[in-house]
Design goal:
five-stranded antiparallel β-sheet, alpha+beta, homotetramer, 142 residues, elongated
């Protein structure tokens, strides 16, 4: 989609705790970074995931996939690129790409699928419960 | 498939640390449990992942996917079922299913793809470097 | 106190995720293992920490200390020894020792201090709110 | 040094993964944040912990203590204050205070003790092996 694609970027630095004895980042940590990517994207939209929960919504993960191309290492500065790949009244899919800042190498790409739920983890229709928020997410969909 | 399928089972109990403020297990932890599943499967085969590294092999994750059907909660006893879904001289794919012990509900299913590498993360051909190990893995492939 | 000391033992195995690039266990993980020690001690007493929360109590950590003598490594089997070092109606202190199973080497020792609270993290007097539970904990105090 | 105390400040934001079902941050995560504090302090000194390891030194944790006064919550912005409390040729102690940015409330304080070692975890005398680095650390001691 080229110029229309709405990637949002945020940066992090790899923590010692995130490495393992292969001397690279343990693979599950990229999922935590995906979470940071979508949190910061939502903040950029003028909302916050914390507020979602304050007003009675949750956005649990229903699906995840990740492809590991090259490893991140301790103290690397990384760029997390996030976009809304799909948005409906019941589902939301984010796409992610994680780059090493120093040479812009793509390390990992992935997606997470989510379902809008109430605080009891029951699915809700966002369009009905929060039409403005729905419109906002929908507009940002790539 | 049926009787030929070689699922290996191991059990764990959910740690407090693995929960999040949704009062369920944080989704990235299932990847850690997948790792326990394949570690114990390899041990069952008479080998150990630790020994892989001692003799100069590593098995980094190149790909992962997971589908979350129902959440695990603190102190739940879980059954991790693991099998070798695909094995070649360069690649290995494990499949996993995680069940809640008390009612046998399927919580999460997924797969991890791996590449055989040396300690410098360079790909190696297992069949060439360790033919007996290759035969062992191959035989266990479902 | 010698023979009167009421240590409870449970075993775990080190996960790959718990290692770091020093090729030993990352130090914060021992706190997670302390938590497993006290959880299993409480279960041994015929209760469960999960039930504490179900009946409206929490036992947040108010203080922790740990001394690291020797490192645990990937796939090591470890023994967690736990006892109730101090118990009053408002406070509880657990002591821990973590040993490597294969040679009984002491790796880490430590303590965690806790306060009985309600679900809103407000302190409560256990003796008043749950006298039988208080008696049970008190009796087990070393 | 009294009023000249050399606290170094860095900020982080609480990740969803760091919460637990008490709806506050799981206590072991503060140790990870202490690590970020000392990493950034060392960077401020013109060095980097990564470089320590590149030139053959490690600084494993030998001791830790923490006092938890008030809980951090999801998405809170936190200030980590770190100083070198003690420095000798063989040992290093960092002190930490973690504040909530919004109201400057002190949440947690603590210390970590470290030993200079070689890559095989054998103790070394920093003054002998790297006199300039030793002088640098020593000067910054509070």
């Amino acid at each position: 989609m080229g110029e229309q694609e709405k990637w949002f970027e945020t940066t992090i630095r790899v923590r010692y705790e995130e490495t393992d004895q292969m001397r690279v980042v343990y693979h599950a940590n990229y999922l935590v970074w995906f979470e940071i990517g979508r949190t910061e994207l939502i903040r950029e939209l003028g909302f916050s995931y914390r507020r979602f929960e304050d007003i009675g919504f949750m956005l649990p993960v229903s699906e995840v996939n990740a492809k590991y191309k090259s490893p991140a290492r301790y103290d690397d500065e990384l760029i997390i690129r996030t976009k809304i790949a799909y948005c409906s009244s019941v589902r939301l899919t984010f796409a992610y790409e994680i780059y090493r800042a120093v040479d812009q190498a793509l390390l990992v790409s992935g997606e997470t699928g989510h379902v809008w739920t109430d605080m009891g983890l029951k699915p809700v229709r966002l369009e009905k419960k929060a039409p403005e928020l729905y419109a906002l997410m929908k507009e940002y969909e790539s």
